[in-house]
């Protein structure tokens, strides 16, 4: 029999996510079709499930250079070819979606997946969805705040009466269907803004940090203010969840990982920054970005494990999710990296973080 103060856990959750970008392979000059990209997303999700990863995420963009504009539809398809992996939006652009429709979609996904749906809400890297869906960009912050508030009320209640600024009121509205889970897990995605972390803490939502490069230490104040705000709002520290997401690529050796990944990462950076006049990336800059104290997860399984655990010392987070399929990378290379994450990295990270949590519970 285990002592009462031992917390049951399986260590840190490890997962992968995709945004479904459609970019020409820099080695061949060819761009795959949206249809093929979708097939590859489903295949990656099946790999995540079969290799024992914990979470699979799909992001949302509304541009011709991305294939994924409807995460709940894609995740519903994935739910029928997987059995256990959690299914998350990474992220839902919450300012330009009706919260009632969002809840209905993810509650339906939860029913189809037998309780595996999650929502990670963010404000998006692009703003096309505002004009596309008839929202005013001037209401950027107000829409996000209001939609969080309404979604969480829908998540908690079968009938809702609610009044806000940006949509019609609800009067004893029936909120259906209800999910398998008591409530759909809800996270707020942040890219470094303390205001977003404070907002997540105020509502007791999970905090998902996109740490895409540089020194991860700069995110420590984000986590601290999140936990401080949440505890002051009356939420228990043990119930607060923190996740880290980042770009990653794993090969058997560090040099092989860097050589394989550089053309695609540089291609992705050029694609993403083309609207901002950023110069092309040099190999020297890339090598600095992959150093041991940075947040770009490129290297051997041991190096990636060490980076995740180093960040765990900073944040004490419960989840890590890697984005691997960027810049036109062929799926074969992506699949090899997923396999190494699941078989070489995840078991060690889970064991070490499980050990630490058990030791902490004994204090």
From TrEMBL:
Q: What cellular-component terms does GO give this entry?
A: cytosol
Q: Which InterPro entries match?
A: Bact_Lucif_Oxidored, Luciferase-like_dom, Luciferase-like_sf
User: What is the top-level taxon of the source organism?
Assistant: Bacteria
> Residue limits of the Luciferase-like domain?
12-314
Keyword entries, A-Z: Monooxygenase, Oxidoreductase
A single MF term (Gene Ontology):
oxidoreductase activity, acting on paired donors, with incorporation or reduction of molecular oxygen
User: Where are the bilayer-spanning segments?
Assistant: none
UniProt KW Ribosomal protein keyword:
no
Please report a single Pfam family linked to this protein: Bac_luciferase
The answer to keyword Oxidoreductase applying to this record is yes
Q: What is this protein called?
A: LLM class flavin-dependent oxidoreductase
